TrEMBL record:
Belongs to the transglycosylase Slt family. Residues 1-25 form the signal peptide. It comes from Algoriphagus antarcticus. One of its GO terms (cellular component) is membrane. PROSITE patterns: LYSM, TRANSGLYCOSYLASE. Keywords: Signal. This is Membrane-bound lytic murein transglycosylase D. The keyword Signal applies. GO terms for biological process: peptidoglycan metabolic process.
Length: 462
């Protein structure tokens, strides 16, 4: 009897538990997937995850940082760390995507002027690392110079060119200005405050504070904007040195294209220069942000342009006719007269003249382009990529030697064959492209007295 009663009780309990197990397995996946008590709970690395932190956590990290400029955590700085890591993470992500464009150059400039490298974080608060940004009062560039202050440091502007948007010129000017403010006040935090509100307002704050000489000593007597300015710089200094702790992982940072400066000594259009050299206009704009409307005027003819390094040898070799052609109207090739080479032919040329690169873990197009002295746009074009997405093990064609244009060959009704000269061509290159054709034959067929040719020029080749 007792055994029968025990079995009855067990069956009743199992029957009662069945609906609960169904609920957990079907309707509440989170409960079903919950780890056992003795299992290790791994941290959440989802890109939207925002880690918790306390004042003590931040203070411990700040104290372990190696930095030249004085930095001690307080409630004001902590509030901006919260703002940029929690409430406005998008601003921080934007900065991370741009910092590789400018931070290496900032470090070189600060070291040259014997200044703390941490000063570079000021530019993040000034401009968000946008060299062409303009404030509501007319300040321009990475370091937000007003016109008068810019002229004091040799940066002029007109309707076509504004030197305040030149990253190198403005960074050098900012370093000189901040160094003079540091000599004036003897403190880098106070120098940054003076950079924001002017030395006159800082002197007034010092007097009103009873002669105190530190930023936090004169804090209550500074303009409201300046009271937030320096703590924001220090918040960014902390954040960019502790990205992983706040789950910041730059997905597609932008890297600077390696370049050299070339002086053409004439007015020119970036569109025309791009056409003659097969450069990307967007790359020229990015490398030369001081040029407003893609036109270098006569008044700035001596300005040196930054040119992607992969094109520098070709431009230097052909500088004479390029200078002559830059004043001419754009060359237009009619589609009906152009015979385009096949994709197979172009692929073969890439294999013969270019190189390949196998994508490794951690690679992005920007770093690969920088390593090979080419641009992201070129790599995407050579590999028919519609986005910046690449995968480990993928083989990319890298071909800095090709011009990217296809040859144009036309045969007239009389049987005469002509060739349209492409950027990068020489008589020797053309002769190599056509078996049995020598340089002397090309010159004789076209009545040429020299080896000088220009893109767009039509040559008789048979």
């Amino acid at each position: 009897m007792k055994k029968l009663l025990f079995r009855t009780i067990i069956l009743a309990l199992i029957t009662c538990l069945i609906p609960l197990s169904k609920v957990f397995s079907q309707d509440d996946e989170s409960v079903a997937a919950a780890p056992l008590l003795d299992e290790e709970i791994l941290p959440n690395y989802h890109y939207e995850y925002i880690p918790d932190f306390t004042y003590e956590d931040i203070n411990r990290r700040v104290k372990s940082m190696d930095h030249e400029m004085y930095f001690e955590l307080n409630d004001r700085i902590f509030s901006f760390i919260q703002y940029f890591t929690v409430r406005n993470r998008d601003y921080t992500k934007m900065v991370l995507a741009r910092k590789e464009l400018f931070f290496p150059m900032f470090d070189v400039t600060m070291a040259k002027h014997d200044m703390p490298l941490e000063i570079k974080y000021l530019s993040i608060i000034e401009s968000g690392l946008d060299p062409q940004i303009r404030s509501r009062v007319g300040a321009m560039g990475l370091w937000q110079f007003m016109p008068a202050t810019g002229r004091m440091y040799g940066m002029n502007s007109n309707s076509e060119v504004d030197d305040r948007m030149d990253p190198e010129l403005s960074t050098d000017a900012a370093a000189k200005y901040l160094k003079s403010l540091h000599r004036m006040f003897g403190d880098w935090e106070v120098a940054m405050a003076a950079y924001n509100c002017g030395p006159g307002n800082v002197r007034k704050a010092i007097r009103r504070s009873g002669g105190k000489k530190t930023f936090w000593g004169i804090y209550n007597y500074l303009p409201r904007e300046t009271r937030s300015y320096v703590p924001q710089v220090q918040a960014m200094l902390y954040i960019l040195n502790h990205l992983e702790e706040h789950n910041f992982h730059p997905e597609d940072p932008t890297y600077v294209v390696e370049y050299e400066k070339i002086r053409f000594d004439r007015a020119l259009s970036l569109d025309k220069l791009a056409e003659l050299t097969n450069l990307c206009v967007a790359d020229l704009k990015t490398l030369n942000p001081a040029i407003k409307n893609k036109t270098l005027p006569e008044s700035n003819r001596s300005m040196a342009l930054r040119i992607p390094k992969s094109k520098v040898p070709y431009i230097k070799q052909n500088l004479a006719w390029l200078n002559d052609s830059l004043n001419n109207a754009p060359t237009v090739l009619l589609a009906s007269t152009v015979k385009v080479r096949s994709v197979e032919t172009l692929t073969q040329e890439i294999k013969q003249n270019g190189t390949t690169y196998r994508v490794r873990s951690g690679d992005v197009l920007g770093s690969i382009a920088q390593r090979h002295g080419v641009t992201v746009t070129q790599i995407k074009s050579w590999n028919n990529l519609s986005s910046n997405l690449i995968r480990v093990g993928q083989t990319l064609n890298i071909n800095s030697g090709m011009s990217g244009n296809v040859a144009s060959i036309q045969t007239s009704s009389s049987g005469q064959t002509t060739y349209t000269v492409q950027p990068g061509d020489s008589l020797w290159i053309i002769s190599r492209k056509h078996e049995g054709l020598s340089v002397e034959q090309i010159k004789r067929l076209n009545n040429l007295n020299s080896n000088t040719i220009k893109p767009g020029q039509k040559l008789i080749i048979g």
